[in-house]
Design brief:
- The chain is of the alpha+beta class and 101 residues long.
- It contains five helices and three strands, in the order αβαβαβαα.
- The chain has a three-stranded antiparallel sheet with strand order 2-1-3.
């Protein structure tokens, strides 16, 4: 993995991207990741539970093999093909909040 560049704008935006993670096994104390209405009732994140977290947090959890991460829509195969074809074909504003017209 390349070194982190503190001043790289792409790194900064990637850190703010929210991703969906799915717990590979029970995570003790992981209930804090649930939305506020559910999190106050459960203390642990159960196996198979899906929550939305920032990329910087998901990255650390994936490295520890505690969760599986669903890639954001902008990185899927179809979106990559659209980007390579023609700018008029792909509406980037629908793919990510960081693109605009």
């Amino acid at each position: 993995m390349p070194a982190f560049d503190y001043w790289d704008i792409d790194e900064i935006l990637a850190e703010q991207q929210e991703v969906v993670i799915k717990a590979s096994h029970d995570i003790v104390g992981g209930g804090i990741l649930y939305p506020s209405s559910v999190g106050s009732k459960q203390k642990d994140l159960r196996e198979g539970a899906k929550v939305t977290v920032p990329y910087w947090l998901a990255q650390g959890l994936v490295r520890r093999h505690t969760v599986d991460m669903d890639m954001p829509i902008i990185y899927n195969h179809t979106a990559q093909e659209d980007l390579q074809s023609d700018p008029t074909v792909c509406r980037l504003g629908d793919k990510s909040q960081h693109y605009f017209e």
